[in-house]
Design goal:
alpha+beta
């Protein structure tokens, strides 16, 4: 198996411990080193010494000594230093795996809760947010599947002439008055609804709503994710940034609903 090539021992940090352990070998300074993990202990040994004669081993040992002294600034063997560095990396990996496992256990509870979060319930909740007018709500409910209110028919948005709490969405020669109130928890109204109408691709209003079900735009999903994510960030808050980043990287791509943890709550994980 082709070894992982590094120029300096510090270059180990550019690789994950799992990759190094599974690869099983490193190449450093023209020499190759085997890496094994036995009983959770990392062992590193230089390869190829068994085929050398006593004289070659002695000469190689002297050369290696002066190389370490003058090039590396250390009298300890590279094998020993590789072993120490990899041991530290293994400890970090163990910590990362532990927290990731605990998070996945909590996440499973959220997934089970979301099984009861049906598209029908989501649609009803979103529709009720789109307007504060009972008559308009009835109209929306009856026309969710009407293609006359799809993106192909959408012609723009206008301010309501007498009520700033309402905006007008135009669909050809028809129009709907939607709520223009601000959203505090991803409610489908105001700027969020305007953006969905202007930028979305939908066959009808029901389609516009359904595309957000169990995604980062679904407040029930983000609500379910908030407790386990906050619990995780609280547990790792005192760790060095590099370790925190590794733990977060281990869980951001966990699937939940129709999205991932990182996409759903990036603000809670301090993601860009």
């Amino acid at each position: 198996m082709t070894p992982i090539n590094i120029n300096n021992i510090s270059d180990l940090q550019q690789h994950s411990f799992q990759d190094i352990a599974s690869q099983g070998s490193l190449s450093l300074g023209g020499n190759r080193y085997s890496v094994t993990v036995v009983n959770d202990q990392v062992h590193v040994s230089r390869e190829g010494l068994g085929s050398l004669s006593s004289a070659e081993r002695l000469a190689g040992g002297i050369k290696d000594f002066f190389c370490r002294l003058f090039q590396d600034g250390s009298l300890t063997t590279r094998s020993s230093r590789l072993e120490t560095q990899l041991g530290m990396m293994q400890q970090v990996q163990t910590r990362v795996d532990h927290h990731a496992k605990e998070f996945r256990t909590c996440l499973e509870e959220s997934r089970q809760f979301l099984q009861h979060h049906s598209l029908q319930n989501f649609t009803e909740a979103c529709t009720s947010c789109m307007t504060d007018n009972p008559s308009t709500l009835q109209f929306l409910t009856e026309n969710l599947n009407n293609p006359a209110f799809g993106k192909d028919q959408f012609t723009g948005i206008e301010d309501h002439p007498g009520n700033p709490q309402i905006f007008i969405a135009k669909f050809g020669d028809q129009q709907i008055e939607f709520s223009n109130r601000s959203s505090s928890n991803l409610e489908l109204r105001g700027e969020i609804l305007k953006r969905e109408l202007s930028e979305g691709d939908f066959q009808n209003l029901g389609d516009l709503i359904s595309k957000n079900h169990l995604t980062e735009k679904d407040s029930v999903l983000t609500y379910c994710l908030t407790p386990p994510v906050l619990e995780l960030t609280g547990r790792i808050s005192q760790y060095p940034p590099a370790i925190r980043d590794q733990i977060i990287s281990a869980i951001v791509n966990e699937p939940v609903g129709n999205t991932t943890v990182g996409a759903a709550v990036p603000h809670l994980l301090n993601l860009p």
